[in-house]
Amino acid sequence: MVIYCIYIVSKSGGLIFNYDHNVPKVENERKFTYPLDIRLNYENKKVSVHFGQRDGINVGHVLTAVNGMPVTGRQLDDGRDAKDVLESKESYPLTLKFSRPKMTTNEKIFLASMFYPLFAIASQLSPEPKCSGIEVLKGDTFKLHCFQTLTGVKIMTVVDRNQIGAEVFLKRVYELYADYALKNPFYSLEMPIRCELFDTNLKAMLEQIDKSGIASI
Amino acid sequence: MSRSTRFDTKKVNSELVTLTYGTLVAQMVKDLENPDDVSKQLDRIGYNMGIRLIEDYLSKTGSGRCLDLKDTADKIQTAFRMYLGVQPNVVNWSPAGDEFSFSLDSNPLTELVELPDDLKQLKYCNIICGAIRGALEMVQLDVQSWVVQDQLKGDPNTEIRVKFIRRLEDAMPAGED
């Protein structure tokens, strides 16, 4: 079972829960000499590979460390600008570490709220009346399954393209939501779910699925 | 861990519910003095329970949206069985089909209860009315619900009336409207 992540979007369209599950970490470190044989670009507050894909360092990967020193945005931890370091000949040879960019929480909230109108548009585009919104969205590397409850809560999961049984999985997540989020008297509706019991039970279910497949839940 | 076994494991003795609920009401009577306020608060508590409980009901039964009130009555009947362990009868349909009653021969909430004389106007089971209203509001049905007959007041059985007001179209989630 390959489940990448789980999102829960409230009735009003806000992201109230997200969980990343076994997304493989892609990291590559290599020694570089002057001049740099890959083209880097600075965008969205990240230094990313623009052109010149090699040794597992792909276009789109971001620079995370220079000589073992972590990079935050475009700044090194000692205060130097990453661009200046990469451009000055004296600093070479350099060991650069690249990894796949990770979505920040803000980006996730942004994407989740973007799905909301998409879902609504899809239901209106339908040639037949009374159409549900998007249930499955398929890309070349993933499938997004969405289950909307009668009360308007959307539970989504991103899974591998060939994964089957995601609908069953979503129903089970719904049960967990009803049990461990809503029955918690200190959880208020529409607010982000910060319930430890919900997290642990979800993790336990995911582990069970990883071990013995979706049919076991 | 199949669906049916999980249902069974969560069953508790109904007396536990009776006693806890009784404690709650007794405490509220002490705190609020005016029985009408207590009834109002019980309805509010019920409402807040209902808006959460509906998700539990939907996730466990997997039932779909109701398109007429008969369907709704049936489903609430199932809910009574799930959460209170009793099967009420659906009776007294209004000619327009927009009102009906649940008639309970036995009500677990009142099993061990007698109302003292000074609390005769207290609506002891108001929590159920609130729960029905809250739960239905979450599935975009606006209803009113009140107690018509009460075994605690000498009636032969407890009757809870439900009146359909309207469908909340503007609250309908996309893909359903």
TrEMBL record, chain A:
<comment type="similarity">
    <text>Belongs to the TRAPP small subunits family. TRAPPC4 subfamily.</text>
</comment>
<keyword id="KW-0333">Golgi apparatus</keyword>
<keyword id="KW-0813">Transport</keyword>
<comment type="subunit">
    <text>Part of the multisubunit transport protein particle (TRAPP) complex.</text>
</comment>
<dbReference type="Pfam" id="PF04099">
    <property type="entry name" value="Sybindin"/>
</dbReference>
<dbReference type="GO" id="GO:0005794">
    <property type="term" value="C:Golgi apparatus"/>
</dbReference>
<dbReference type="GO" id="GO:0006888">
    <property type="term" value="P:endoplasmic reticulum to Golgi vesicle-mediated transport"/>
</dbReference>
<keyword id="KW-0931">ER-Golgi transport</keyword>
<dbReference type="InterPro" id="IPR011012">
    <property type="entry name" value="Longin-like_dom_sf"/>
</dbReference>
<dbReference type="GO" id="GO:0005783">
    <property type="term" value="C:endoplasmic reticulum"/>
</dbReference>
<protein>
    <recommendedName>
        <fullName>Trafficking protein particle complex subunit</fullName>
    </recommendedName>
</protein>
<comment type="function">
    <text>Core component of the TRAPP complexes which has a function of guanine nucleotide exchange factor activity for Rab1 GTPase. Plays a role in vesicular transport from endoplasmic reticulum to Golgi and autophagy. May play a role in dendrite postsynaptic membrane trafficking.</text>
</comment>
<dbReference type="InterPro" id="IPR007233">
    <property type="entry name" value="TRAPPC"/>
</dbReference>
<keyword id="KW-0256">Endoplasmic reticulum</keyword>
<dbReference type="GO" id="GO:0030008">
    <property type="term" value="C:TRAPP complex"/>
</dbReference>
<comment type="subunit">
    <text>Component of the multisubunit TRAPP (transport protein particle) complex, which includes at least TRAPPC2, TRAPPC2L, TRAPPC3, TRAPPC3L, TRAPPC4, TRAPPC5, TRAPPC8, TRAPPC9, TRAPPC10, TRAPPC11 and TRAPPC12. Interacts with SDC2.</text>
</comment>
UniProtKB/TrEMBL annotation, chain B:
<dbReference type="GO" id="GO:0048193">
    <property type="term" value="P:Golgi vesicle transport"/>
</dbReference>
<dbReference type="GO" id="GO:0030008">
    <property type="term" value="C:TRAPP complex"/>
</dbReference>
<protein>
    <recommendedName>
        <fullName>Trafficking protein particle complex subunit</fullName>
    </recommendedName>
</protein>
<dbReference type="InterPro" id="IPR016721">
    <property type="entry name" value="Bet3"/>
</dbReference>
<dbReference type="InterPro" id="IPR024096">
    <property type="entry name" value="NO_sig/Golgi_transp_ligand-bd"/>
</dbReference>
<dbReference type="Pfam" id="PF04051">
    <property type="entry name" value="TRAPP"/>
</dbReference>
<dbReference type="GO" id="GO:0005783">
    <property type="term" value="C:endoplasmic reticulum"/>
</dbReference>
<keyword id="KW-0333">Golgi apparatus</keyword>
<dbReference type="InterPro" id="IPR007194">
    <property type="entry name" value="TRAPP_component"/>
</dbReference>
<keyword id="KW-0813">Transport</keyword>
<dbReference type="GO" id="GO:0005794">
    <property type="term" value="C:Golgi apparatus"/>
</dbReference>
<keyword id="KW-0256">Endoplasmic reticulum</keyword>
<keyword id="KW-0931">ER-Golgi transport</keyword>
<comment type="similarity">
    <text>Belongs to the TRAPP small subunits family. BET3 subfamily.</text>
</comment>
